[in-house]
Amino acid sequence: MKATGMYTLETQFPLSGVKNFIRVCFQYEDLLNEAEMQSNKNLQSRVLIPSITQKIGTSTVDFFPWELTYVAANKLNWQPRPNLQSGAYTPWLDENNAKFISSTKAASYYLWDMDKPNGGVDCFDNRYFLNDEPFTILTLFNKYQIVQSDSEHVLFKRSERLNFDFIVEGDEQAGEWNKWIAVPTDSLSIIRIKTTFKNNFFGKLRKAIYRDALYFMDYKLENGDQKTFRIIPENAVNGLWVNPLIERISDGLKGRKVNEIRFRCSDSTLVQPT
Asked: Of 142, 44, 157, whose CA–CA distance to 111 is shortest?
């Protein structure tokens, strides 16, 4: 966990030695009290502002992307989704989370922590969060509405009706690696692309005995800027987010317009050309 760069170990807790043996065997109550005090101290940074906790009240709540300590810090009524935390790297996990969020078992509120990642959209390994769990994210946006947001949190509440009027399936087409693909110009719609990449024989062999190549999706924005994110091929079949490019979860479905997208692979000798 420390190697990921997302965790620190400021407080060491020694367990070996005669002194610690005495503490565990003869001063156990003191040890428990010390641990509880340290836990309460650690949780102070996760205490929410009153306006958020008052809105949630005793209703059920869950959290995006992965920070769960809000439960203990605020004594909340936690109703976790099947995957507990975000990071559904297979379509099966993604689909099961989406089905749960669509059901009546889902939490009444979802709290999105924007501290890490920046703006709530950046993920591990330079991935775009909306592409990591395509079905889950789309379902959340469809079934919930933002009722409060600030620089650190976005609170979603379950809506009485669906937010999207209709979903249209587009046309299927083949594309080439490293070639820009024009995005439909209808800026009033959310645009996603279900993408299938296939390994050739050498790619399948390498994937079986080592690992797959790295895959990237480039976004060319209306003002000429470009953004690049890594993508997970297994989840790309569920629909990668194209337009608008949302850069802060607190902005809801507002973002910068994307004119073109492009797919790249770290080793083109391992994939089929289209």
From this structure: 157
Name, in order, each residue with C-beta under 8 angstroms of 65's C-beta and a sequence gap of 6 or more: 85, 86, 87, 112, 113, 117, 120, 123, 129
Mark 68-107 as b/e (b = at least 16 C-beta within 10 Å): eebbebbebeebebebeebebeebebbbbbbbbbbeeebb
pLDDT tens digits along 119-151:
788 887 888 888 988 999 999 999 999 999 988
Pairing of strands 144-149, 77-78: unpaired
- To which residue do tokens 């079986």 refer? 208
| pTM (global) more than 0.85 | no
Q: At how many degrees (to 10) do helices 134-143 and 91-102 cross?
A: 10
Q: Has residue 99 got a pLDDT over 70?
A: yes
Residues present in the chain in total: 274
What amino acid is encoded at 68 in this protein? L
